[in-house]
Please model this.
Amino acid sequence: MKKVILCISAMLLSAIGFSQNNQSDIEQQGRNNEIKVLQDGKNNMSDVTQGGRNNFAKVDQDGRNNDATIWQFGKDNTAKINQNGNNDTASITQECDSKDNTVVINQNGESCQDCPSSNMVNPCQSGDCGGDNGDYDSSHGVRVASSDRGRSGYGNGSGNNDATVDQDGDHNKARIDQAGKGNYASINQEGDHNKAEIDQCGKDNEAMIDQDGNWNKAKISQSGQGLYANIEQDGCRLDSKIEQYGKNNDAHTVQRGWDQKSVIEQDGRSNVAYVKQRN
Model:
């Protein structure tokens, strides 16, 4: 009778423990591939599918209710997902014919009460200057600066961030860093030698980069709340940067052709900037 009671107690403890367990699913084929999964927390899910040759995938989860998915094929690719928070989702896809691509997604779980603030200078702080705030156009670049000093400290908790990277090509690099709550980031790369980076701090921000071509560079930095940024590149040697602070700002850059450069900097609230370049 004593053994039966002990057995039932162990089963109950096991059931309780199972509800808090992490889950890791790995499916691996090919040659000379490596997968590492480190889980420390509760109810985290990792799903890694790997094939091809000489690929490396790593998932590091420390928190609760995080979801990480890596689908990696091709040759000499690297994919890393680091989740240190709660309720975050990250996904990396490296296609079958891809080679020597690198992706890093960091979701650090910080509330980011001290988000970076803008260092932009408003020439109209002492009065109303009228007209546009410091726009300029050149033969190879456009800069739009909407300067109305925003604030840092848009944290209000952390988690529920979503990041996705999809690569198809060779020698591409992508990185996403997220801190805060409810942020969404997406990078899509098709071609060779492209580089994309998204850095988000704050709440309910959205950033998307779509690259099609070769030797393109794109970077989005967001610090605030309700910010939206989108970069579309189709061509070669295109360079675009969007830097946003404040609240509810909207920025779009579309580049077609080659050797174009664009920089957008926004600070304040409810500003809209749009750049389209082609040749």
Observations:
- The chain has one helix and 21 strands.
- Residues 138 and 261 are 10 Å apart (CA to CA).
